[in-house]
């Protein structure tokens, strides 16, 4: 027997259910579920994704037995509706709709009104007494069939419609008369004849079979592939096909069609919202071709329908325990639901909805925490226009604020140009269109932001923008865009392609010119509630990498529980300090070095005091100087050039004075070159750096420790609590640590005695060399804490330079699947993490309470954070901006470890 490839639904029952999304696609599974719930869904059936995959695998041959199952299901629909497919006296019309497992808005193709031909149209007129309706449906079928199934471009059809609108002097297709529509149908058939070289198929079954094949084929269409690529959806899932009894929103003013979200998709507010049109069908609402009405108006226009719809929306939300995005049609006062799915939303809305669903008791707090992707938190930190920038620019237009964030760029009126300007010229681009279509997605993804002159909150532009976190303003009707002329008018202002423009997706404002952006503070009441729950669930601590008090303060505001890494060398690079640092490095006189080091002390002390104040009561890990010294000096090549230059100048010198001056400079440059030359190494990253510096120049690290402890004494006298942790970098042998610690401990004790203050400090080391990890048992004798420097540890474990990795062979390695991902972005679980795990176990043998953590890029990467959680580390440390992301990731990791999963 052939596989069951067709699943019926409708009339309060169904073969399928919501859990069958793999087989029935999202649309089909939810139509079945709604039907089971007794929600009014027009009768229909779903052809499985398995059938699609088999069709695609067999070069476009329908699986055997499939069509017989389709015909049987059609007969069931006929019984359910009392109509007959292809029968002019009482015709059943159907839609043929794509529907993959994951919703891909507008990506796949749908054909409505299948079953119409000349005779059936006449029958329809008799039946409804509405000639306009019958021809309106017929012309829609021919156009959709022509474009989707026969591959004809949209333009010839649109041209015919435009000419008729012009002749009639109307704006919208809805105002065309039955005579217009009748003549349009004839012209459309002619377009089919000329472009596809076939007669428009009049047999209902032929229409359905051809449409089914076209939906299957559309799975491999370019725009579907592009979308899947961008949204990370596998290419082998296939799409289901849904055949659904047509219900008519275009049967006069008592009929309507619309889309709605059970909550506001931009802010998350718990209010039903949507758009609809009376006397319209299907795509009219999302296509943005006619101005839609807000759902609110339906309340006045059709109160009973509105109330029923509101009840269904609430019920669906409760049933799915998630915000729903629904499509509905009203046929002469009767409500039908055509689709429901999880609604796409902005990051802000995602957080608010998760929190409010939990507070309503529909989901648990654990689920709420699992429902927000850590990356979404980044959108809370999306750039915004500074108040000053806004004050200095006039708002030239306003539209709907459908996707928050500020974006500024040069205007591109077409998606290909937008993509080219971004990819080839690295320009910041705003894509500006009358409305967007599925073919525009590549340009939308490339652009910084999206601006349209028509379309509502549920338009294609709004949906795609929200999904990808692109700032967007839609429906800015003051914009008069002339794509052909590559310019637009906003009142009297002309804006040409390539001119700068700025949009604020949070407010819906449009500005001429380029506005400056700033990163906002996160002060969102729902986010803080969600983060509060996350903090209750996580085990792993979160600290920040911060070198300056400002960063530390920001990190603390974002919830950092300490500083996991302060890099002290940044302080040496500051312009007023660099000459002293260079003197310290280049001098051969111990006295001069001493003096140079001493003059750096007050700077360092102030740096540290600032950090301690900002982190009052929280631990601050300060890493002693790490980079190779040549990084502080002019380059060898530069000095060589300078020397040659000076020698030429001396031969051309005019006066003795001049010669003398140049000679002095010459000897200075020569001695610098000598020193730089003597510091030159073949492999500086494997050279004189890290702890090796402290061993060769103990004055330097001694000074740093003095600065740390003096600063701690200073702020504790002010009444703050300083908790310094002094960290020694690049240890590979326990003796290095023992030697340095002796010297530094002595200095620390001396300072505390001088100051008469006790400071609770600790000594520890970075683990960034495999040998250190392998000997952690010995190292732990001298280290009270270990911090894995996973950037270097990855570099030294793989023997791959992290500085060249991203431009060199690593790219190929990832493309070819030799490496599953970039180990500098996501911790290598099998290798690097294994070394870490060994080190932690060994270190705890010596010192059970030893503190362990990670600093480095991995500390802010959700997948790596989960690995660190499993390793049982005490904390991760990441950049201040990623602290909230790390907190959420740590909570999710803890919840998953105990078996919680987000069922949605
Ligand atoms: P998409 O996946 O692009 O949303 P759909 O299959 O949902 O495509 O259909 C496109 C439009 O046509 C939607 O507005 C939908 O509500 C409408 N539609 C689909 N089937 C029917 C039907 N049987 N009767 C009336 N409208 C329909
Ligand atoms: Mg569609
Ligand atoms: Mg739909």
Total helix count? 37
Overall, the morphology is: elongated
Q: Based on DSSP secondary structure assignment, what is the total number of beta strands?
A: 34
- The low-confidence parts are none
Largest sheet data: 8 strands, mixed
Radius of gyration: 34 Å
What is the structural class? alpha/beta
What percent of residues are in strands?
15-25%
Q: How far apart lie the N and C ends?
A: 35 Å
Order of strands side by side in the largest beta sheet? 15-25-24-17-18-19-20-16
Round the mean pLDDT to the nearest integer and report it. 92
Classify the helix fraction into a percent range. 40-55%
Question: Cofactors and ligands present?
Answer: adenosine-5'-diphosphate, magnesium ion
What's the topology here?
Elements: E1 6-10, E2 13-14, H1 21-36, E3 44-47, H2 49-57, H3 66-81, E4 84-85, E5 91-92, E6 94-100, E7 110-114, H4 118-128, H5 131-149, H6 155-168, H7 178-196, H8 204-218, H9 222-231, E8 239-245, E9 256-261, E10 273-278, H10 284-287, E11 293-294, H11 296-301, H12 303-320, E12 324-331, E13 334-342, H13 347-359, H14 365-371, H15 374-377, E14 384-385, H16 387-391, E15 395-398, E16 400-403, E17 406-412, H17 415-425, E18 429-433, H18 441-446, E19 449-452, H19 460-468, E20 472-474, E21 479-482, E22 487-490, E23 493-496, E24 500-504, E25 509-512, E26 517-518, H20 525-537, E27 541-545, H21 549-557, E28 563-567, H22 569-572, H23 578-586, H24 590-614, E29 619-623, H25 636-651, H26 656-679, H27 691-696, H28 698-717, E30 723-728, H29 734-755, E31 762-767, H30 770-774, H31 776-779, E32 785-789, H32 790-798, H33 802-805, H34 809-815, H35 832-846, E33 851-855, H36 862-871, E34 875-878, H37 883-897
Parallel strand pairs: 4-5, 17-18, 18-19, 19-20, 27-28, 27-34, 28-29, 29-30, 30-31, 31-32, 32-33, 33-34
Antiparallel strand pairs: 1-2, 1-3, 3-8, 6-7, 6-8, 9-10, 9-12, 10-11, 12-13, 14-26, 15-25, 16-20, 17-24, 21-22, 22-23, 24-25
Helix pairs in contact: 4-5, 5-7, 6-7, 13-14, 13-20, 14-20, 20-37, 21-24, 23-24, 24-28, 25-26, 28-29, 36-37
Bound molecules: adenosine-5'-diphosphate and magnesium ion (MG) (2 copies).
